[in-house]
Model the fold of this input.
Amino acid sequence: MPKFFYVTRDNKGKKITGFEEAASQDEVVSRLQARGLWVISVLPQTKTTHPLLDKIEGEARKKPLRQHFRVRSEDLALFCRQLATLLGAGVTILKSLEIISQQVSSRHLYNTIQSLKKDMEQGLSLREAMAKHPKVFSEFWVNLVESGEAGGNLAIVLSRLAGYLERNAAFRKKIVSALIYPIILMFAGIGALLFLTLKILPTFAELFKGFNITLPLLTRMLMAISGFIRRYILVMVALFAIGLFLFRKYIRTQDGRKMYESFKFKLPVFGEFFRALIVERFSSNMATLLESGVPILYSLEITERSVDNFVMAGIIQKVKEEVRVGKSLSRPLAESDFFEPMVVEMVTIGEEIGELPEMFKKINTFYQEYVETFLARFTSMFEPLMLLFMGLVIGLMVIGMFLPIFKITQMGGR
Done:
């Protein structure tokens, strides 16, 4: 019969650890709870080396270490996936952290894992150790780990968390990839316009000074714009930088953030896109939390703190208050006027058939596809519009520069 290592606390908060033989982790959890103990962690113990352990240790010896300092989302997703895999294979948590620490690319994450090991060796649970590093492990992380430790299914919860992190990372990559080309095209266009304005137009202006002619209106306008930009470009750049700094400082305040977010949601066309992004994050968080066994009120509370949007956080707070007094989740969602009827209907069905996590997954999939489709259409429309705009502007500039030359040529012919 397999042996399991457990970490528990009694009613006075005293930590109790030990080994228990049982047919499964669930049986160990039931026995410990019957003794009045609060279960923190139940992990299988193996005396033999697991093939997976040899493989990962071998990769750790080959992989170059700590290539960058900051902790990227990809680093966290890989760390979570490896930890879930090792724990699921029966490797102890301290041994798992030791193996993973030898192959992480982030110096900061390496130091954090070393700190986790040290804290756990001194008697802290994984949740308590992670809570000491809020800049690396969000509250979302910490609460899911606590749920896994309490239920004795930490490996399963970490596997779900890893899937959540991997899906989010892949989704962000798709968004960034879709926006790279329009951004490059926009900056290339601005650069071309500045080159023509600051270099080419002044050259033609000097050339025309040698001729005693009245320049066409379009040419005079272009020369005036060029002269203004050349004269005040440093002032304009400074004012833009100051304005951007003040704007960013203002939107970090609560009132500024609320006003900025409300403004984004009211934008034509793009308002629905920003709304879809927020609903996508909300549904993703709720699906992962509920699937991991976190109660609905606690899930709403965690999502409220991790959604990173004041408007949505306010809505979730009202929803949470309604659910606390016994109302269904779908009713306050409908009353918020933020969610589409489709979302409300799917949540209603999920509550009725007891499949709320699955319904939130479907909502999340729908909004991810909506965002990807929107970006694909935006990119396909932006390119020809940008090229058309650039063609018109550059065409006007070229016409403005050559009109005086045509006039000089006609004068010379006479």
About this structure: The CA atoms of residues 264 and 271 lie 6 Å apart. The radius of gyration is 30 Å.
